[in-house]
Design goal:
The protein contains nine helices and seven strands, in the order βαβαββαααααβαβαβ. It is α/β, with parallel strands linked by helices. α1 packs parallel to α2 (44-54) and α5 (133-142) packs across α6 (149-157). Bound molecules: adenosine monophosphate and manganese (II) ion (MN) (3 copies). Residues 63, 74, 189-190 line the site of one manganese (II) ion.
Length: 275
């Protein structure tokens, strides 16, 4: 089975509309697809309708921004109920924080000699309630500040650079409980991307498990092939189910296209084992 359980549409920082994303997934042979936009569920209905017309099995998802011990981590929720009031109000509180943060990013960049970036970023955010660093990055590339999104992140938008504004996202416990309250499964997104020491990673995963977290992404567009093995080992050690997802955002911005990554190592219990 070709299963892709992590991607983004214009409802957050992806480049394709939900229905365009589903059409691309179908063309790539994806049989089960989850849309996991950042901190919101507004793209799910359109994606589901398109998936039904294309014979793709659709899974409601979300990717929640979390602050754990001062670091930003992402928790994916799968098989959530997008109508659940607890989940919805939690996600709404994160989106409110994003708006304030984006204004501060604009001010920080202006102080560094880059004017009008908040207004510029807004023109790239199709969902006005979900403005992300990706929208700033696209605007800054367009103004000629850097040749591509990757380098603009490195020069301006990561910790220690002029446009970076520290931000407090949801707590790990809240994010996992919102997902579970809505009937969903909580999965750690791209665990290899966090700059944790080994003890920190273990403490983080143990706390995630204690909160009711169930899975981790093993095969993701953010991992190298060596990291597939590393996180397969960790999934076994912690008794987590394993997930596979491209984290596709759009052409030119993602390492992996929808449904094109390798399969999970055969002995792992996939997050979809009882779907
Ligand atoms: P935000 O949630 O607003 O902090 O934005 C995070 C998003 O920015 C991620 O989901 C990625 O899509 C993108 N991103 C983060 N770091 C990088 C990077 N180094 N290069 C390109 N895109 C990045
Ligand atoms: Mn993103
Ligand atoms: Mn992420
Ligand atoms: Mn993602």
């Amino acid at each position: 089975m070709n299963i892709d359980l992590h991607c983004h549409s214009t409802a957050s920082d992806g480049l394709l509309k939900p229905e365009e994303l589903v059409a691309r997934a179908a063309a790539n042979g994806v049989e089960i697809l989850a849309l996991t936009d950042h901190d919101g569920v507004s793209g799910l209905a359109e994606a589901r309708t398109k998936a039904e017309s294309q014979g793709v099995r659709f899974v409601d998802g979300v990717e929640i921004s979390v602050t754990w011990e001062g670091s930003t981590v992402h928790i994916v929720g799968l098989q959530i109920d997008p109508e659940d009031p607890v989940l919805r109000s939690g996600l709404e509180s994160i989106r409110e924080g994003r708006a304030t943060r984006a204004e501060k990013m604009g001010e920080a960049l202006a102080a560094a000699g880059v004017p009008d970036s908040f207004a510029g970023a807004k023109t790239y955010a199709e969902n006005p309630s979900l403005i992300s660093r990706s929208h700033f990055a696209r605007h800054l590339v367009k103004t000629g500040l850097a040749p591509d999104v990757k380098s603009v992140f490195q020069r301006y938008l990561v910790k220690g650079k002029p446009g970076f504004v520290p931000h407090q996202w949801a707590s790990l416990g809240d994010a996992v409980s919102w997902i579970r309250a809505s009937g969903g499964i909580a999965v750690v997104a791209h665990p290899g991307r966090y700059n944790f020491s080994k003890p920190e990673l273990h403490a983080f995963l143990a706390e995630f498990r204690d909160c009711g977290g169930a899975g981790i992404e093993v095969v993701t567009g953010s991992h190298s092939p060596e990291q597939y093995f590393e996180f397969a080992r960790i999934a076994r050690e912690f008794g987590f189910t394993a997930s596979r997802g491209s984290d596709y955002h759009g052409k030119g911005e993602s390492r992996a296209d929808l449904g094109t990554l390798p399969q999970l190592p055969y002995d792992l219990k996939p997050v979809w084992h009882d779907w």
